[in-house]
Write a structure and sequence with these properties.
Length: 252
């Protein structure tokens, strides 16, 4: 299937590893030109090398988007064909180590900013250009936890806010063919993460988890999330504003 995004410019945050890296490669296979953002320039260059396209086709930007004014600095570093992306994939998110439900309001705010606020700042800067051209795709990474409410309260609350943000913003944007939606992954097998370690260290406990929560009996792969995200970035997603697509193996 031709996704209709050849030569579209796609900004991908958190693009140096895991799901972000897989999404970047999936979009490149469809002919998109990439703006890859991460704190590690070396890792971003590795992604571009793996993609194997002509020099200058993709842009690597090493930037910590958690830092103040970072979105403005990103905007200032983009010019020419890369000045206004057609597609944004927001792949930042996590608990930032804030696990206590009674953590300070400042810690809760940090988690919200990481999962929602940075994405909103990027959208605020770049979506007006999409609206003026009457074409744009914005994909956020949500989580199964917004359905199960399992996990750390600050993180789960932030992702629930993200889902509400996607639903609310999509109502404003879809009339201009700017389609915002989200992918909600379940358990993904990422190296170094708890369940991937469990697979090696205590497979019986992992099997018990599958018995109780995941009837498909396996973890998902980053590449499986990437092809879904790529579709949501495509021409074919034009009638899907506000969709939050669960890709969780039937987990609960």
């Amino acid at each position: 299937m031709d996704l209709g995004i050849n030569d579209r410019v796609a900004l991908v945050t958190g693009a140096s590893k895991n799901i972000g890296r897989a999404i970047a490669k999936a979009l490149a296979r469809e002919g998109a030109r990439l703006i890859l953002v991460s704190r590690s320039l070396e890792n971003l260059r590795d992604v571009v090398t793996e993609i194997g396209d002509a020099p200058g086709r993709h842009l690597c930007v090493n930037l910590d988007l958690q830092q103040p004014e970072s979105v403005q600095r990103l905007k200032e570093r983009l010019s020419g064909d890369f000045a206004v992306p057609d597609i944004i994939v927001h792949n930042l998110g996590g608990s930032l180590g804030v696990t206590d439900a009674f953590a300070s309001s400042e810690d809760w705010a940090r988690v919200w900013h990481f999962n929602v606020g940075i994405a909103h700042e990027l959208n605020r800067v770049f979506i007006p250009g999409m609206v003026s051209r009457k074409w744009g795709r914005i994909v956020h990474l949500s989580t199964l936890s917004t359905q199960t409410y399992d996990g750390y309260a600050p993180y789960v609350s932030a992702k629930c806010a993200l889902d509400g943000y996607v639903k609310g913003m999509s109502r404003l944007l879809s009339r201009d063919n700017v389609i915002m939606n989200a992918v909600a992954p379940g358990l993904i097998g990422l190296e170094g993460r708890y369940f991937k370690r469990l697979e090696k260290e205590n497979p019986a406990q992992l099997e018990q988890y599958y018995d109780n929560h995941l009837p498909i009996r396996r973890m998902g792969a980053a590449d499986e999330m990437a092809v879904i995200a790529a579709f949501l970035c495509s021409e074919h997603a034009a009638f899907m504003p506000g969709a939050i697509v669960r890709a969780d193996g039937g987990g609960h």
